[in-house]
Design a protein that fits this description.
This protein has four helices and no strands. By secondary structure, the chain is an all-alpha fold.
Length: 100
C-alpha cells in the first residue's frame, strides 16, 4: 500500500511540476548570443552494451549484478551505444541542441 501511495504522490508531483514549467515561455532571445544549448546524460543510464567491444564492468555493473537492484540493470539501458549515430544525433538536431 505504501508503494502505491508513493507512486501516486510521485506522479502527482511530476504532473504539477510539468504544468508549472510548461506555462513558462522561453526563446533563444532570452539568452546571451554565445549561450550554447546542450544536454548531458549519465553513461550508465543510457549507454547499454554492457558486454561489448571490450567494455569492462563499472562499479554500477558490479553493484546491480550482485543482486542489490531487484534485477534491474543498465545492460541495455536506452541503448545509446547502438543508436547514437542514427537516432540520438537526429533527435539532438531536431531539438536544436548545440552541445552534448
Amino acid at each position: 500500500m505504501v508503494k502505491g501511495r508513493l507512486w501516486f504522490f510521485s506522479l502527482f508531483l511530476v504532473l504539477n511540476l510539468a504544468a508549472t514549467f510548461s506555462s513558462l515561455k522561453f526563446s533563444r532571445d532570452d539568452f546571451p548570443p554565445d549561450f550554447i544549448f546542450g544536454s548531458g546524460t549519465s553513461a550508465y543510464q543510457v549507454e547499454g552494451a554492457a558486454f561489448q567491444d571490450g567494455r569492462t564492468p563499472s562499479i554500477w555493473d558490479t553493484f546491480v549484478h550482485a543482486g542489490l537492484s531487484h534485477g534491474a540493470t543498465g545492460d541495455i539501458a536506452c541503448d545509446q551505444y547502438h543508436k547514437f549515430k542514427t537516432e540520438d544525433v537526429k533527435l539532438m538536431v531536431e531539438t536544436g541542441l548545440e552541445g552534448y
